[in-house]
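Escalated from tier 1: zinc ion holo job.
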Amino acid sequence: MPNELISDVNARRVWDSRGNPTVEVVVTTQSGRVGRAIAPAGASRGAREAIDMRDGGSALNGMDVKRAVKNVETRIAPAIIGKNVLNQAEVDQAILDLDPSKLKSELGGNATVATSLAVLHAAVAAKGVPLWRHCADLSGNEPSLPLPEIQIFGGGAHAGRRVDIQDFMVMVPGADTFDEVMEVTSEVYRAAGAIMKQKGRLAGVADEGGWWPVFDHNEEALETLVRAIELAGEKPGDRVVISLDIAASEFGSNGRYRLALEDRELGRDEMIALLGRWLNDYPILSIEDPLAEDDPEGMRAFTQEFGSRVQIIGDDYLVTNAALLEEAVRDGACNAVLIKVNQAGTVTESMDCLAAAKAAGYGTIVSARSGETEDVSISHMSVGFGAGQLKVGSITRSERTAKWNECLRIADEMGQGAFVKGAPLASTVWAQKVGEEA
Ligand code: PGA
Ligand code: ZN
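Tier 2 regenerated the structure:
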């Protein structure tokens, strides 16, 4: 492995898409190569994900990151200066060695992830290759363009809990190119806006750019989404399908699920039955966190019943953790995992989870957070890791379109043939859908 040694590490406070402070890190090498990255921030966070360090107090609602910035410069920097940026695993291990806490609470997950990503970028500057290529080299995976899942309506913690369900999204697995996915999705997004306007319910957008969910009950969002797909000239379930992030940990615990909008509480079995009915009545091909993170029994039961026909993604449930993923594989819970680099806290740990998922035949979806910035690292990761899927939020707001547009640039570099129609979805799911049509 060639050597490109870190000579300097600097951090500063910058701002995310919710107007909250976050951490940016700049890594410089001895030959003057520079890598830079920014930590994202979640709102519906898993209990077992890396913890961002926030300063507390009254200023900035306690969200300031001055301590995390200082940790990068006074604690992480001395430990990684002199290390080789091309050896990501070694640099990440040096960061891990500094923080014996399980959830990175000593350094701050925001400090560790921004540093780890900046190292990745510095390596790319040193190698003179695109980031996606370096990610493919590091992971040993064949690069491919991801299938996007794109939000049409926001909800849950991203929309003041106006509805209980968090993400109402579309996927276009029937598209031939990445570009076609974006075009079809844009039509659906616009159609959804037109329907909301016509009903007198257009009220701006939620945190990730999807329409604000002015609905009387959760299912009304699904009904509206189907109508929007039709209004866009598509047959629901044909080229365009629905993907949901229930984010059930936000309203469920101890096997009870409280749907505030509908003023009712469901037990585990009733919750599974409700989602099962939605899977029957709507063209849903992917569902994330259908049960809460403290409900492995529910997740196992749900996977057993529906896992052969729908992608079941663990987000809060698996928090990009290889050990939790392996446990879920043994348990028969979920069949896909969301990969959020700041849940793990370093690039290497995210890659470990991705590798464990691929080894188990689980689907992998690289994902943004609801608090995002202009940083486009995850677009490259989704390609270079051969993840197959990418979740970034809606098709509006620049912190979102920055990621989609970067994928379009990569598509031009790689050739549109790098987008594999339908294949990225958990293969059983897609095979079954195609089989039913044939
Ligand atoms: P978060 O939401 O970034 O607020 O956690 C994203 C998700 O749940 O997928
Ligand atoms: Zn989620």
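The longest strand covers residues 6-15.
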